[in-house]
């Protein structure tokens, strides 16, 4: 398994070449329009990006980790008409498509029908080079998460805020890599498990290039409430932030200190 340089995407080579992405958010333009910001439909721009990354690695399978669509509880014309056209084109390329539903994906079965395979919103365990548990991240995972070596989730759209030499602040999309405690996670899930030791977690950046994200090094403690962090098994402060270009920026606690102008 590896990050794809420059892309918010993961590639698993076994058992088949599988791309994993999260948070495409087809139809986000409709929410902007409600706020008076007119943006042309980006559905085929997103579709072309998907096709580009698929062709780059010659993928055979594509797994969406939730929030394929955007609007809730209603849906836009983009989600009803253009999103299915894009997903249909991916299917015509011979791709197997799987959706692990996110909190924005209500009624998506009515829009996409049999174009994709639907997993549980509580996650999907797959086996390749490692046992990997895939989940969007808004819901508590199913108990089979404890059989995994690695959890991959989206939902958070992580970015870090970095202070430049002239004092301005820029935001960069990042991957988050956390090391967790399997025993603590089992206790929070109320599951009896003999398995102990470390379980890793990767939080994916959003695939949609326009969407904003949550600045994880300026996030107030009360806002760190996504379920896997609430479990106590993972510590966001000790997460490592990695840019789309593969640069390891260090731990979130250090990046927070730098943002606030302190010394490390």
Topology:
Blueprint: E1 2-3, E2 10-12, E3 18-21, H1 28-34, H2 43-57, E4 61-64, H3 77-92, E5 96-99, H4 108-112, E6 117-118, E7 124-127, E8 131-135, E9 150-153, E10 158-163, E11 169-181, H5 182-189, E12 198-203, E13 214-215, H6 227-230, E14 240-243, E15 248-251, H7 252-259
Please provide a written account of the structure.
By secondary structure, this protein is of the alpha/beta class. The protein has a single domain (2-259), classed as Purple Acid Phosphatase, chain A, domain 2 (4-Layer Sandwich). The chain is built from seven helices and 15 strands. It has helices spanning 28-34, 43-57, 77-92, 108-112, 182-189, 227-230, 252-259, and strands at residues 2-3, 10-12, 18-21, 61-64, 96-99, 117-118, 124-127, 131-135, 150-153, 158-163, 169-181, 198-203, 214-215, 240-243, 248-251. Strands 7, 8, 9, 10, 11, 12, 13, 14 and 15 form a nine-stranded mixed β-sheet that branches. The chain has a six-stranded mixed β-sheet with strand order 1-2-3-4-5-6, with no helix packed on it. α2 (43-57) runs parallel beside α3 (77-92). The radius of gyration is 18 Å and the shape is globular.
Compact summary:
The protein has a single domain (about 1-260), classed as Purple Acid Phosphatase, chain A, domain 2 (4-Layer Sandwich), CATH 3.60.21. It is built from seven helices and 15 strands. It has helices spanning about 30-35, 45-55, 75-90, 110, 180-190, 225-230, 250-260, and strands at about 1-5, 10, 20, 60-65, 95-100, 115-120, 125, 130-135, 150-155, 160-165, 170-180, 200-205, 215, 240-245, 250.
